[in-house]
Amino acid sequence: MKNSVFLLVLLLLALTINVNSQWESDMRLTNDSNNSLTSYNNASSIASSGNIVHVIWSDNPRVSGYPQIFYKRSSDGGVSWGTDTQMTSNTWYFTGHPSIFVSGPVVHLAWIYNHNAFGMLFYKHSTDAGISWWPNTQISTGTLSMYFPSLAVSGSIVYVVATAPSSQLSRIFYTRSENSGQSWAATSPLVTTTSTSQFAAVSTSGSVTNIVWQDNRDGNEEIYYIRSTDNGLSWGVETRLTNNAGYSSYPSISSSGSLALVAWQENRDGNYEIYYKRSTNGGLSWGADTRLTNNSDSSYYPSVYVSGSNVHVAWQDYRDGNWEVYYNRSTDGGGSWGADTRLTSNSAASITPSITVSNSSVYVVWSDNRDGNYEVYFKRNPTGNPVGIININTEIPKEFSLSQNYPNPFNPSTNIKFQIPKSGFVNIAVYDILGREVTTLVNEELKPGTYEVSWDAANYPSGVYYYRLTAGDFSETKKMILVK
Question: Cα(295)–Cα(300) distance, rounded to whole angstroms?
Answer without folding.
Answer: 12
